[in-house]
Amino acid sequence: MIDLHAHSTASDGSDTPAELVGNAVAAGLHTLAITDHDTTGGWDEAVAAVGRLDVPFTLIRGTEFSCIHDGNTGDDDGPISLHLLGYLFDPEAEALKAERARLRRSRLGRGEAIVDNLVGAGYPISWQQVLDIAGGGAVGRPHIGQALLQAGVVDSVTDAFAHLLSSSSPYYVPKLEMAVDVAIELIRQAGGVPVIAHPWARRRGRILDEAALRSLVAPGLLGIEVDHLDHAPDDRARLAELATELGLFSTGSSDYHGTRKSVRLGSDTTSPDSLERLLSHASGVDVVRSPTTGHGQ
Ligand code: AMP
Ligand code: FE
Ligand code: FE
Ligand code: ZN
Q: Which of 68, 153, 166, 213 has the highest CB neighbour count under 10 A?
């Protein structure tokens, strides 16, 4: 089984990168992508963990980039936030590296602003507590959710997202995001493979329409994450058709976040054929195979 989207403590997952690799093996996966938000910070620890495995396993190094699109033509609702997965890009490619640093820096000021709003409304959490929970990883709303959980304000992080942390909450503050066409181009320039993450996750907010999705092919989009928890069956079917029509490959992934979300590793998976297509475009860094992995695994 192949799962191409998972988070670690390098961003808002709860497994360390080494634990993530161990849990992927335990879940029966033979290929996993580590895709933390706006960082490659978990890569080295995950690589080391794969080096210690005594079962066949392949690690794909990636990042989930915070992006923004101008908005759908014909509505006046403005820009749309979205996520873009980049796989196997060169982490030293300067322009993309600078963008990751900029995105992570903005997560700090923005996280503190959300916490200030919540504290101002009387919720008993603190910014230091959130920083401690994040433990040096890219800070996100799930860390604030964890603080609210510790304070007994909510029963789960998901619960925190229903009101206090949602983008329509009075406490919400947006974070900096990259223009998605620029992100696609920079990932390609760095030898990486851009795949749009959960494009029709409707419950998270506004989504790109078909025309907007089509427009991402010109800057160099290569794949669509079709099978994802947040996609309804009819949306999966239509996205798969669209991918075929546009010459893009389709992926399926869990978007695992450890205990911060209920989804399990391998809950959605990618076909070997799509993985082959992904790998055929990658030239930034190699996949990492465990010592016992035969070639082509
Ligand atoms: P941020 O990157 O700080 O804007 O926070 C967004 C992150 O929160 C996403 O990447 C998810 O990991 C997480 N998230 C979004 N919606 C929910 C939800 N309803 N329940 C739990 N986690 C969520
Ligand atoms: Fe996340
Ligand atoms: Fe995402
Ligand atoms: Zn994700």
A: 213
Q: Which among 65, 141, 148 is the best mutation to test ligand 1's pocket, defined by most ligand atoms within 8 Å of the CB?
A: 141
Indicate whether 260 pLDDT > 70. yes
Phi, psi for 57 (deg, rounded to 5): -160, 140
User: In CATH, what class is 109-162?
Assistant: mainly alpha
pLDDT reading at 296 higher than 80: no
Q: Could you tell me the two tokens for 292?
A: 């016992």
Question: What are the boundaries of each domain within the chain?
Answer: 2-104+175-289, 109-162
The dihedrals phi and psi of 240, each to the nearest 5 degrees, come to -65, -40
At residue 77, the pLDDT reads: 86
3.80.30.20, 3.90.25.10, 1.20.1110.10, 3.20.20.140: CATH of 2-104+175-289 = 3.20.20.140
The neighbouring-strand residues paired with 61 are 34
Q: Is the minimum distance from the CB of 61 to ligand 1 under 6 angstroms?
A: no
CA atoms within 13 A on the CB side of 56: 8
CA 226 to centroid of ligand 2, rounded, Å: 18
Ligand 2: centre distance to CA 220 (Å): 24
From the CA of 84, the nearest ligand is 3
Pocket test for ligand 1, best of 85, 154, 161, 172 (most atoms within 8 A of CB): 161
pLDDT for 95: 98
